[in-house]
From TrEMBL:
Reactions the enzyme catalyzes: isopentenyl diphosphate + 2 oxidized [2Fe-2S]-[ferredoxin] + H2O = (2E)-4-hydroxy-3-methylbut-2-enyl diphosphate + 2 reduced [2Fe-2S]-[ferredoxin] + 2 H(+); dimethylallyl diphosphate + 2 oxidized [2Fe-2S]-[ferredoxin] + H2O = (2E)-4-hydroxy-3-methylbut-2-enyl diphosphate + 2 reduced [2Fe-2S]-[ferredoxin] + 2 H(+)
Protein name according to UniProt: 4-hydroxy-3-methylbut-2-enyl diphosphate reductase
Superkingdom field: Bacteria
Active site: E126
PANTHER family referenced in this protein's UniProt entry, alphabetically: 4-HYDROXY-3-METHYLBUT-2-ENYL DIPHOSPHATE REDUCTASE
């Protein structure tokens, strides 16, 4: 068996920053701290911090007053920040800077009187946070069919934004439909889909033709990981999204000569290593590292945390 190991894969700069941020907060304040939602969408990462004593919550009301609360990489709405202030909670913001960029754009367009069309998945943490910046100005859509149902007048001031972890191809189809219906629609100076999402999708798209099977390491609630699996399926290759080797079914490998392995932007390399080790032990797999693009992006820790580190 041959394993093609896609590069880039796994942690992006935003995830690295968020995890490093939480680790530093634990070093400074101890592990009896709280995180609003999952720090990143990955079971392995969340379980590791839970075992250390960190508590993940879905509402600010679950956090005792005067506690430490970390905001996840996906960002939060102004309403959540206000709730934290009202409970005298000290907050550390681990929002990915690329998500913050989308929030800033939403505020800018709303203040300028635009109707904002946000392309994204309903219920995703990032989308909830972005819509909270200007709920009266934002309309959420996901498909070209939903574009057809929009009823803005042709002369309306419109702008579109996107969730950072979308399928590049699918988002492109929605954007094309928007521009066809509303030629005047404005877009941010730089696209919102993040570099890491784009690069990981490009790697799978290029390498999938060589594979009999695609294995994506990541959690089911990870949007960018699901997109990687969907690319494999769209190429008519059996493709599975798994948290680790414990979810691998042996029958997937029946008659399989070449496996393409990648990992979502919130999946740690340890789960990739475990999968490769298993395939080497059980199938004498030979591994080929396939580098499609190189990454060197790094985000600094939040300013408030850097200040605490310097004391």
């Amino acid at each position: 068996m041959k394993v093609i190991l896609a590069n880039p894969r796994g942690f992006c700069a935003g995830v690295n920053m968020a995890i490093e941020c939480l680790e530093e907060v634990i070093q400074i304040f101890g592990s009896s701290i709280y995180v609003y939602h999952e720090i990143v969408h990955n079971k392995y990462v969340v379980n590791r911090f839970t075992e250390m004593g960190v508590t993940f919550v879905d509402a600010v009301s679950e956090v005792p007053e005067n506690s430490i609360l970390v905001f996840s990489a996906h960002g939060v709405s102004p309403q959540i920040r206000q709730q934290a202030r009202e409970r005298n909670i000290r907050t550390i913001d681990a929002t990915c800077p690329l998500v913050t960029k989308v929030h800033t754009e939403a505020i800018k367009y709303a203040e300028a009187g635009y109707n904002i069309i946000l392309i994204g998945h309903e219920g995703h943490d990032e989308v909830i946070g972005t819509m909270g910046e200007a709920p009266e100005s934002i309309t959420l859509i996901e498909t070209p069919e939903e574009v057809a149902a929009l009823e803005f007048p042709q002369e309306a001031k419109l702008a579109y934004l996107t969730q950072t972890t979308l399928s590049v191809d699918e988002a492109g189809q929605v954007i094309q439909s928007l521009k066809a219906k509303y030629p005047q629609i404005e877009s941010p100076p730089k696209e919102d889909i993040c570099y890491a999402t784009t690069n990981r999708q490009a790697a799978v798209s290029e390498l999938v033709v060589q594979a009999d099977l695609v294995l994506v390491l990541g959690s089911q609630n990870s949007s960018n990981s699901k997109r990687l699996m969907e690319i494999g399926k769209s190429a008519n290759k059996p493709s599975y999204l798994v948290d680790g080797v414990h979810e691998l079914l042996p029958e997937w490998l029946d008659g399989c000569e070449t496996v393409l392995i990648t990992a979502g932007a919130s999946a740690p390399e340890v789960v990739v290593d475990e999968m490769i080790q298993y395939l080497q032990d059980q199938y004498q797999a030979e591994v080929e590292n396939a580098v499609v693009r190189k990454e060197s992006v790094r985000f600094p820790l939040p300013k408030e945390l850097r200040i605490l580190q310097s004391k």
